[in-house]
Amino acid sequence: MKFSTKTRYGVRAVLEIAMNAGENGIYQKEIAQNQDISYKYLDQIINALKVAGLVTKAGGRKSGYVLTRNPSDITIYDIHVAFEPGICVIDCVSLDFSCAREKFCSLKGFWGKLNNQIVEYFKSITIKDLMEEQVKLDDLVQLQD
Description:
This protein has helices at about 5-20, 30-35, 40-50, 75-80, 105-125, 125-145, and strands spanning about 55, 65. It is mainly α. The radius of gyration is 18 Å and the shape is elongated.
């Protein structure tokens, strides 16, 4: 199973916005530079995050982006569903999938439990958690320099 680039970059963009919280927010070009994401591709990501209600402009047209909620209230799952309808490790656990074997297939339960664990894990990790981890990593890098 592989998560989309949009989800992965979306998490990076939201984390960058959270780490640079301020009255004026952070500009898209700074996010693109800091996260090594093409500006054009980041535009698509930012638009999806805006539609999902996770980010907004800090002020007028000439302002940067800010989170719409506290970092402790935004989960990785929230970001993922801005780009994908949900998490589905295999077709047979999808709600709209029908299989002739499902009544006697023990694997459906296995895949369903795995899928649920991944969803719950994504819901359990917040941007605040990632911010705290990033601060620790930044401190380690500074100690090594």
